[in-house]
Design a protein that fits this description.
Layout lengths: L2 H43 L8 H4 L4 H7 L10 H20 L4 H10 L2 H5 L1 H70 L6
Length: 196
């Protein structure tokens, strides 16, 4: 295979790959935008305001306070806020109210009680704690799902940028390859053939 044919073959392959990457970039951009819009719309619809002031200051764990401070008083509309609210506010309150026990542990304790024990003041308090932890886990699960999908949206945008950069790089290399093949063809046509 001569050099001109090889250049055209490699350049054509590069051009096809550039188009594939460009289409992939467009699809990833669309996916990232769709995911981010859905996450933002769903979180905004909940009308949650991030804690501020005393609500943050009263938290026992300094890591919880530091995670919430950048979002203090803001409406909860993004994945990072959802993660901070779920892991550093709701969970902090769940742990404080249950002494660090999980819903599963408290529920296990409650189900072991007899009907008489469940009717007692302590039994009712344990049942209320069980219900509170269940609701907290449900809300945390929803918020952390929004965080996960929001992160997927961010990754889609990064991947789109990489795809666009790859498409441009391959496009330039393909153009140079075609130009080189044309130059080789021109040189071959203008070079006199030696007669023996």
């Amino acid at each position: 295979m001569d050099r001109k044919t090889l250049d055209k073959l490699i350049s054509s392959t590069g051009a096809v790959l550039a188009v594939v990457l460009l289409i992939g970039g467009v699809l990833l951009t669309w996916a990232g935008g769709f995911v981010n819009a859905q996450v933002s719309n769903q979180l905004t619809a909940q009308r949650i305001t991030m804690p501020a002031g005393d609500a943050i200051a009263k938290l026992e764990n300094e890591a919880d306070r530091k995670a919430l401070e950048p979002f203090a008083g803001q409406p909860l509309e993004g994945p990072r806020q959802a993660q901070a609210f779920a892991d550093h506010y709701i969970l902090a309150h769940m742990n404080a109210s249950s002494g660090g026990r999980t819903y599963e542990e408290v529920s296990g304790e409650y189900t072991k009680l007899s009907d008489e024990e469940k009717a007692s003041e302590d039994g009712q308090a344990l049942g209320a704690l069980r219900q509170t932890l269940f609701m907290g886990n449900t809300l945390r699960g929803t918020l952390l799902t929004a965080y996960a999908f929001g992160t997927i949206g961010e990754i889609a945008f990064i991947a789109a940028g990489v795809a666009y950069a790859g498409a441009v790089g391959l496009g330039v290399l393909s153009f140079l390859g075609f130009r080189h093949a044309k130059r080789i063809q021109s040189v071959a046509q203008t070079t006199p053939v030696a007669v023996a």
